[in-house]
Amino acid sequence: MPVRQAKAGTPGSPSSGEPFYLAVGTLRRPHGVHGDLLMEVHTAFPERIQPGAQVFLGEAYSPITLERVRPHNDGLLVGFKHVDTPEAAGKLRNILVSVPAKDRPALAEGEYYHHQLVGLRVETDTGTSLGLLAEIMVTGANDVYVVTDEAGHELLLPAIEPVILSVDLAAGILKVHLLPGLLESQENE
């Protein structure tokens, strides 16, 4: 069951009526003399970061328009309207760049964004409650779901087809099948 990562960290929940934003990158350092910045990319869809697009900066989600975007090493070089000097760009260092969640691209059937899964109740195929999906660790082979029960104990579940059975976003439930030895091996650690 593929999952696309949309944001680093925990997304939190918006208050009723409040827009919900997803981080797509972090501005790192100024580049050149025209106010461009190197942006570390946090989205699986960097191709959607285009000149003319409105993005939102920092925790206040201040709107700003992208003027220039081009690939650079593992990130992007971005330039914003009205940011045209290295000094002005330097003031934006280490600020998150976000987009409204409503603008996120649709995924194929059976694919989910991380923020859609974190917080779901996790139940086994026999109906046993395991806790809440607290975190998703991205690894080289497959993601690992960190499930935390009421006592704070963690259970690590590999996000592979034999383990992850179904996702019901409307009901808020992630159904899983515990492979033999999975629960016991973690209790002994």
Short description:
With 189 residues, the chain is mainly β. It has 3 helices and 14 strands. It folds into 2 domains: 3-103, RimM (Elongation Factor Tu (Ef-tu), domain 3, Beta Barrel), CATH 2.40.30.60; 118-187, Roll (SH3 type barrels).
Describe the structure.
With 189 residues, the protein is mainly β. The protein folds into two domains: 3-103, Elongation Factor Tu (Ef-tu), domain 3 (Beta Barrel); 118-187, Roll (SH3 type barrels). It is built from three helices and 14 strands. The protein has helices at residues 86-90, 114-117, 182-187, and strands spanning 3-4, 21-31, 36-41, 54-57, 62-72, 75-80, 96-100, 112-113, 121-124, 129-137, 144-148, 154-158, 164-168, 173-176. The strands form three sheets. A six-stranded antiparallel beta barrel has the order 2-3-6-5-4-7. Strand 9 and strand 10 (129-137) form a beta hairpin.
Number of strands: 14
Q: Compute the CA-based radius of gyration.
A: 20 Å
Give the SSE order as H and E letters.
EEEEEEHEEHEEEEEEH
**CATH fold description of the largest domain:** Elongation Factor Tu (Ef-tu), domain 3
Please, how many domains?
Answer: 2
How far apart lie the N and C ends? 28 Å
CATH superfamily of the largest domain: RimM
CATH class wording of the largest domain: Mainly Beta
Q: Strand count, sense and closure of the main sheet?
A: 6 strands, antiparallel, barrel
Topology:
Elements: E1 3-4, E2 21-31, E3 36-41, E4 54-57, E5 62-72, E6 75-80, H1 86-90, E7 96-100, E8 112-113, H2 114-117, E9 121-124, E10 129-137, E11 144-148, E12 154-158, E13 164-168, E14 173-176, H3 182-187
